[in-house]
Amino acid sequence: MELLSGGEIVVRALKDAGVKYVWGYPGGAALHIYDALFQQKDVEHILVRHEQGAVHAADGHSRSTGDVGTVLVTSGPGATNAITGIATAYMDSIPMVVISGQVPRDKIGQDAFQETDMVGISRPIVKHSFLVMDASEIAVVIAKAFYIAKTGRPGPVIVDIPKDVTSPEYRIPYEYPEKIKIRSYHPTTKGHAGQVKRAVKTLLAAKRPVIYSGGGAILGDASAELTELTRLLNFPITNTLMGLGAFPGNDPQFLGMLGMHGTVEANNAMHEADVIFAVGARFDDRVTNTPSKFCPSAKIIHIDVDPTSISKTVNIDIPIVGVCSTVLRQVIEEIKTTKDTTDKIAISNWWSKINDWRERYGIYTEPRHEPSSGDIIKPQDVIRSLYKATNGDAFITSDVGQHQMFAAQYYLFDKPRRWINSGGLGTMGFGLPAAMGVQLAHPNAIVACVTGEGSIQMCIQELSTCLQYGFPIKIISLNNQALGMVRQWQDMQYSGRYSSSLYEDSLPDFVKLAESFGHVGIRVSNFDELDDKMEECFALKDRVVFMDINVDRNEHVYPMLIAPNGSMKDMKLSKTERT
Amino acid sequence: MRHIISVLMENEPGALSRVVGLFSQRGYNIDTLTVAPTNDLTLSRLTLTTHGSDQIIEQITKHLNKLIDVVKVIDLTDGPHLEREIMLVKVRANEAQRAEINHCVDVFRGQIVDVNTNTYTLQVIGSSDKNDAFIEAIDYANILELVRSGVSGLSRGEKILKV
After folding, report:
1. CB contact, 8 Å: B59 with chain A?
2. How many CB atoms lie within 10 A of CB A295?
3. Minimum Cα–Cα distance from B23: chain A residue
4. Which end of chain B is flanked by fewer CB atoms within 10 Å, N or C?
5. pTM for the complete prediction?
6. Average pLDDT in the B66-77 region?
């Protein structure tokens, strides 16, 4: 057996876990590992400019591929800088392994230089964590970390390794475990047959059904099964913010996104449904509005890989624990074998009702906002222009705020893993580094980051990483010179008192800023030039292009659920109208 | 309602903090908690009492099960079970008070485990209810110090918690 140092074991174990890329930032406690990285070619390290960027990049890589994202940081500030990224991944159940250096074993607990209790500080935002106290444990722990991260409900796993454990002074035999078995960890994959039968009976008897699918359908690679089932039943389907793309966005059966900024047809259909079929969705407060008023007449069927998601906020009538793709396959088989059929007349009447909502309120039947003209560019039109320029086939990452909602509403994703955003934690600064992860995983794909002048400044340092590694990301910045979503709420609830949501002419010249990072900057300030400039941007295939687009700062995102105490059918349609 | 939840988990560093963290993180209550290794030294057995609606208790057991270090979880109060808690009480015990304290300890089948010129240390083992009753009964004496171990318990009969 080969004799390796602890540092070499870390790198070799990553390779054996199937890792090709590690995102990270070196520092004292991780130097032995970095030295081992330097001396091999199988695992490539990408040097970011801030550890938060490393985690978001690994996250974006994972979201766009399904692989486990991998991060390497040093102890202390390296570890704490990674925390926001880890929490982001945790809230959206993204499989990830974060290796953090730690101070040497004999220094732990002594407030040593760059010491922080990483296992402790990350505990509430990780699926699991390990502190490796002996080099002989490294390979097994890394193998377990990857296994835990990607199975069951995925999530980030921390492996904290004291510096002396990776020391080149000691060499020990290396062996990567072929199979991992953890006696206390047995995630359910297949759905309970009896529950599947009950679910199918309920589905087929439904008169006003809605399929409501979330991020779990994407993480569980259930897009094909979900599409097949939805078409087989001819049921309407809505996706959560995290679930966009699991069902084709341009399909007539798709009602659009639901929830806070969902479409009227989706939210009304949920409210009036008699059967809700939730697939990998978690009844988040951005969806349900007031839980006690949520879907008052619906029987709810819920597929989820995580038993704790069942009946967490809303009581579930028929829970099925399992991986979405597997359970949906069981459901499809059961429908095909049973003699019952759907109530075609009831479903047809249901569609008439839904289509009526679409006609009256739908944002896809006609624009519900004022048109753009001259120097008034509506943010919605920027997303439409982006859609056109990319043929609707790009990977779109986003930051958090109005631009995120406009992108979710107006860029209709036909494929899963194309819409990359921080849904659960709502992390500004996510978009650009996440786009780096996507671009690295898909070097020939078009990757655009839809952002705003607020969010982009939270991780703008990564423009430098883009140059070093040649990630030709297109940054579509909806510049409204304000923290748009904050401003919207201040308009609605605080009589327009813009407390700390304006920049007062302090914003940088983003075109020059992009140029100083070695990239291309394009400013758009007139609607008439929007499409041409957008084409120009995407024609520059090998360059990072920063599109600084001046959009109407007075625009609000609609529709919008009315909170607090509203149901899903209580919505604002514009600044003056409501349902 | 009060529930006694028993958890079999890996005897690993950090396992206990994950259980305790879960409760504070999700806003659940821990009323008592006791933990020690079992006969199999790779495993610890943790018993906690908590209260909440059925929905909360269900979430608690599910979240406990979700922790990677947790092997098995059982709500002992779901079925017939034994519960015990050890309590040590140091009381002022003057000549005049001793007879009555002795009597009270006898009634509760407790023991006097330490005697001093002015104090007694009493040991009572029983359910939490019984121990509560003892505190009330001995209240006339001057309680100087009191410590309760927290509840431990097992299911009655054949039902066992194992890997």
Report:
1. yes
2. 23
3. A124
4. N
5. 0.96
6. 97
Task: Confirm whether A564 is domain-assigned.
Answer: no
pLDDT tens profile A313-330: 999 999 999 999 999 999
Please give the positions of A annotated as active site: 51, 113-114, 163, 485
Residue A108 covered by a domain: yes
A479 band by pLDDT with thresholds 50, 70 and 90: very high
Q: Is residue A24 part of a domain?
A: yes
In this predicted model, what pLDDT tens digit does every residue of A170-220 receive, in sequence order?
999 999 999 999 999 999 999 999 999 999 999 999 999 999 999 999 999
Domain that holds residue A23: 3-173
Of the residues A361, A395, A427, which one is the last residue of a structural domain? A361
Residues A198 and A333 in one domain: yes
Q: What CATH number does the domain containing A472 carry?
A: 3.40.50.970
Is residue A139 situated within a structural domain? Answer: yes
How high is the ipTM of this complex? 0.93
Does the CB of B117 have a partner CB in chain A at under 8 Å?
A: no
Six-digit token string for A134: 């002996």
Task: Tell me the domains of chain B and their CATH numbers.
Answer: 2-79 (3.30.70.260), 82-152 (3.30.70.1150)
8 A C-beta contact, residue A82 and residue A56:
no
Q: Does A306 touch chain B (CB under 8 A)?
A: yes
Regarding whether A309 and A404 lie in a shared domain, the answer is: no
Contact yes or no for B70 and A308 at CB 8 A: no
What are B19-69's pLDDT values in tens digits?
A: 999 999 999 999 999 999 999 999 999 999 999 999 999 999 999 999 999
pLDDT in tens, B111-146: 999 999 999 999 999 999 999 999 999 987 789 999
Q: What is the pLDDT of residue A563?
A: 87
Write out chain A residues lying below 8 Å of B21, CB-based. Answer: 123-124
Shortest Cα distance from A311 to chain B (angstroms)? 8
Instruction: Provide the number of structural domains found in chain A.
Output: 3
Last residue of a domain, one of A310, A326, A361: A361
Asked whether the beta carbons of A434 and A440 are under 8 A apart, the reply is no
- A395 and A290 in a single domain? The answer is no
Residues in chain A closer than 8 A to B53 (CB atoms): none
Q: Does A224 touch chain B (CB under 8 A)?
A: no
Cα angle, residue B97 at apex, residues B91 and B103 outer, rounded to 5°: 90
